[in-house]
Amino acid sequence: MYDYHVWANQQVFHHLKQLPERVYNGNVESVFPSVLDVMVHIYVVDITWLETMKESSFQDTVEKVERLRSEASEASIDELKEFYDELSKEYYSYFAEQQNLEQTIITEHPRYGRSEFILADLIHHVVNHGTYHRGNVTAMLRQQDQKGVPTDYVFFLH
After folding, report:
1. Where is the binding site for a divalent metal cation, in residues?
2. Domains (ranges, CATH) in the chain?
3. Which of 53, 73, 75, 126 could bond 79 through an S-S bridge, CB–CB 3.0 to 4.6 Å?
């Protein structure tokens, strides 16, 4: 499933690079103010969940996310794609180190308290979250009289 997530993000970046820059950076009346903001959101949430899987502390995760959000928010589309590529390498490295993706991890959150998650469920969450927000991108592109790009799972399988 994570391979699909990486593939779908790559499809979106490839498509966005072919569009005028104003489409990527321009303000849109939507859930997010711009396509860039959606792509940054997916990126930082992916960081958050990888850090959660690694059992990093809440404070360390927040600090890392805020630092990388700041960098990503100022990035060109090519730079942001590179950030995504590097993050996917970190995910794959983490997966390679795991003996059991069905293992349970325990997290502590100041608002939600103690939680137990199965790693495989968190991976599905990352993929599902990305799918949801790539849909936002498609809607925002249509608002700007642009076409979206097909990223349905079946296209990945094909």
Report:
1. 41, 129, 133
2. 1-12+32-146 (1.20.120.450)
3. 75
